[in-house]
Amino acid sequence: MTSGCSVYQTVVNLSRLQFKLGDVNNFTVSGINISNKKSLQDFNALEILNLTQVIASGKLPASFTLNVEAKNPNDGSGGYPKTNATIKEFPWRLEVDDVETIAGNIGTSVTVPGTGEVQNIPLTMNIDLMEFFGNKGLENLVNLALTLGGQQGSSSKLALFATPTVTSPIGDIKYPGELKIIEQSFSN
């Protein structure tokens, strides 16, 4: 009976992992780093020309790192044993401004220590903004990019949906449903 209880407790512990969106870093639009820009007026003439030409070609490639913060509350307090958790798979899909865009997975496993501290999971995103937001025009496209990755950017317009698989002593445990991960609070 103790073995069954410990297996159940392991599953419960691993399912207590919490996630939220952190910072957006290294945001580039058509190769232009926008992390120090607040508005379209902060782009120089050459950058505006570059953006105009790229948009005229029907594309607006953007890349950035979306940091997902994972917290493992299994720190040995509150009646739960201290348990490290290793996320083996983290298939995700990304919504930008309530529009479903791209999907992916982590490249390597990530261990979230049972210390209650936050572990960062950096996800590299490559997206063609024209593909999903092409009807918005140059200024609105640039403003969307600046909202996400500019000088005062945040992940508030992003939602990440993921179904983690966590490695355990009894085998891999896949979350039973998709998690919605947002900026405001940890979700599990």
Q: What's the quick description here?
A:
By secondary structure, this protein is an alpha+beta fold.
Secondary-structure blueprint:
Layout: H1 2-14, E1 18-29, E2 32-33, H2 45-56, E3 61-71, E4 85-89, E5 92-96, E6 99-104, E7 110-112, E8 118-128, H3 129-133, H4 137-149, E9 158-162, E10 165-168, E11 171-174, E12 179-181
Antiparallel strand pairs: 1-2, 1-3, 3-8, 4-7, 4-10, 5-6, 5-9, 9-12, 10-11
Protein model, in words:
By secondary structure, this protein is an alpha+beta fold. The protein has one domain (2-181). Helix content is 23%, strand content 38%. It has four helices and twelve strands; from the N terminus they run αββαββββββααββββ. It has helices at 2-14, 45-56, 129-133, 137-149; strands spanning 18-29, 32-33, 61-71, 85-89, 92-96, 99-104, 110-112, 118-128, 158-162, 165-168, 171-174, 179-181. The strands form three sheets. Strands 2-1-3-8 form a four-stranded antiparallel beta sheet. A four-stranded antiparallel beta sheet has the order 7-4-10-11, covered by helices on one side. Strands 6-5-9-12 form a four-stranded antiparallel beta sheet, with no helix packed on it. Strand 10 and strand 11 form a beta hairpin. The longest helix has 13 residues, at 2-14. The relative contact order is 0.25. The mean pLDDT is 86.
Major beta-sheet overview: 4 strands, antiparallel
Rounded mean pLDDT is 86
DSSP strand content? 35-45%
Percent helix: 10-25%
Helix segment count?
4
Total domain modules: 1
Number of strands: 12
Low-confidence stretches: none
Specify the structural class: alpha+beta
Biggest sheet: strands side by side, in what order?
A: 2-1-3-8
Radius of gyration: 20 Å
Order of helices and strands: HEEHEEEEEEHHEEEE
Envelope shape:
elongated
| Straight-line distance between termini | 28 Å
